[in-house]
Amino acid sequence: MANRALIVTDMLAAYDFEDAGALVEHAERIVPVVASLIERAREEDARLLYVNDNYGHWNSSRDELVEIAMSGERPDLVEPLKPRHQDLFIVKARHSIFYGTPLEYLLGQLDVDHIVLSGQVTEQCILYSALDAYVREIDVTVVRDGVAPIDERLGDAALDMIESNMRGEICAAESCRLT
Predict the structure, then answer these.
(1) Is the pTM for the entire model greater than 0.90?
(2) What is the CATH number of the domain that holds 120?
(3) 22, 95, 111, 119, 152 from 105: Cα distances, Å
(4) For position 1, what pLDDT does the model report?
(5) What total of structural domains would you count in the chain?
(6) End-to-end alpha carbon distance in the chain
């Protein structure tokens, strides 16, 4: 039986970048879903990790990233998803949650061999993270209604690639197993 972890990816955002307008309409849809997944993970005592871009703030910490996101364009999209102090939190600088981060080591320490991905952006960070998990022989589930694309067509293509090329499971939040 797999030991799973829910990973919330890049949801602490100020939404002040070039493609933010296109992303926001999709993010509005997923925030309640991701908030529900986070709550479920806590209730089920499932592993919960946040991995978030530092957006070029090289001295950033969890608290600083939350503060920047909350003072951004859409704090209403951040507030329901804010990590608690006891939640595991990793800062990343590139698209993949694995690239240049201690995530692979942490998953090994936690004996996690299956990650459940939620967050943004489907055709970028979620796709690249799923691929990096796949090459590390970590099983992947992507929560279809818990990820936000910038371009819906590319987001759908990314999910198709994850399912067919990486043997990833794509599921609705209500049917995704977290433990």
Answers:
(1) yes
(2) 3.40.50.850
(3) 34, 18, 10, 21, 33
(4) 56
(5) 1
(6) 9
